[in-house]
């Protein structure tokens, strides 16, 4: 198979505010704006950003739980919007989701065995023996005892419930798992166990992950590539090591510099970068980060910066750090003085 497993092209989602009765224009929430990326088979692609930047909306668009305002999602080169019933069902087998809260996403009245085999039984009839064998096998795969097959979700710990959610996602042998804040609700030590489990499963089964998280330490641990989102747009997309070693976008730099050192006291990103995220209903003109950016120049207030490819394989949307064209007559700061400015602002 050539080409990426998943390709996202110019994906956009605007949520209308109200019905707009007797009004000419309806205000919209610009949740996702012109997002493009691709994911290779067996890759872990992470999306990171502050609360409200559009990460979960991207996940919902990928799963086709909401329809895009514009843009396309292609699996193995096929646009999922054009799929008819039968093909859509086949595609659904290939892409599964693991949710943040394993408790609310599991039916409390079903046993672990029933929860795990339910997705398969939507596609084919299983005998009692097949059902038990499948459930036991999947429980083992996620490090749980097959004896738990008759337990209810309420009889499991948070970590076990998340393992159960993963077992359920694995049941259809997907090529891609979308994990939306899949470890955020867990204790740090349980988080590490679940992340290691996901990486082991990836190695064994070649599964690709789109992993959505606000937690940079988690992302640094598991990602092959990382997309940083700000107010609905990707502002930097880079190989994981390069991103953490040398962030280019001022927003990425601020997030990484402010990320907490390993510590059980988890700190949310939104308190770490100066100022509030502006409203997605009426976002700032030009680069949406400019009101919080110490490096902003006049052009940032006027033009939306395009994603510009850099020599090391990353793309960055910043008029100052990655100008698409020279800024005429402007005093573009060197990287080192720009870094110094960010540090001063944070201290
Ligand atoms: N169904 C909806 N209707 C209207 N607005 C929505 C809807 N879903 C999301 N939004 C808005 O879209 C924006 C992006 O939300 P989204 O949940 O995708 O962000 P997020 O980065 O996942 O945030 P968090 O980390 O807090 O979950 C937010 O302003 C949110 O209020």
UniProtKB/TrEMBL annotation:
It comes from the Bacteria. The keyword Mitochondrion does not apply. It is found in: Cell inner membrane. It is a peripheral membrane protein. Signal peptide: none annotated. Coiled coil: none annotated. Keywords: ATP-binding, Nucleotide-binding, Transport. Residues 6-256 form the ABC transporter domain. InterPro entries: AAA+_ATPase, ABC_transp_ATP-bind, ABC_transporter-like_ATP-bd, ABC_transporter-like_CS, Oligopep_ABC_C, P-loop_NTPase. Its main location: membrane. One of its GO terms (molecular function) is ATP binding. PROSITE patterns: ABC_TRANSPORTER_1, ABC_TRANSPORTER_2. Belongs to the ABC transporter superfamily. This is Dipeptide ABC transporter ATP-binding protein. It comes from Mesorhizobium shangrilense.
